Amino acid sequence: MKKLLTILLVAIIMQGCATTYQSNGYTGGYSETQLDENVFKVSFRGNGFTRKDRTEDFTLLRSAELAIKNGYNYFVIINGGTDISTSTHTTPTTYNTTASVYGSGNYAYGTARTTQYGGQSYNVSKPSTSNTIVCFKEKPKDVMSYNANFIYKNVRNKYDIQDDL
Question: Is 58 exposed, middle or buried (0-12, 13-18, 19+ CB in 10 A)?
């Protein structure tokens, strides 16, 4: 029961450890490369506590920000996808031995107990999303496009991110 409570407590604490909306750093974040005047490659890399849909939303948010900052109202995703890298982490194993000995005459008697800690393996999945976008001032016809201002407002509201434009 104690082990279950510990695992539950760690899981609750770690929920707050998902990658925040930030420029790319040690724990993940967004990055972009401008490929042409109105073309960008936009990526968001999450950490082991980030859900796949969060990386997708934050990639859309960064795409909307780039469109708005460069004077565009719409963008189209011409290439995109989400990858998940998985690794395994094993905690170190330690041993603790306690013993007691007592003697009587020429004899010694005793007991010893060894306890093992650690040695558990955990799978860690880190999602990342990347989109190549083309930005437009007017809504393009015959193609699925995103309204940059709409995406900007809704994704920021969804994750309670303060407005910075």
Answer: buried
Per-residue pLDDT tens over the stretch 30-83: 999 999 999 999 999 999 999 999 999 999 999 999 999 999 999 999 999 999
Residue 10 in this model has a pLDDT that exceeds 60: no
Q: At what angle do helices 52-69 and 148-158 cross, to 10 degrees?
A: 140
Nearest in space to 75 (alpha carbons), one of 96, 53, 59: 59
CA distance 64 to 138: 14
Contact 11, 4 (CB under 8 A): no
> For residues 50 and 79, what is the distance between their CA atoms, to the nearest angstrom?
22
- Cα torsion 164, 133, 126, 155: sign: positive
- Number of C-alpha atoms within 13 angstroms, CB side, residue 77? 18
For the CA atoms of 52, 139, 143, 61, what is the dihedral angle to 10 degrees? Answer: -10
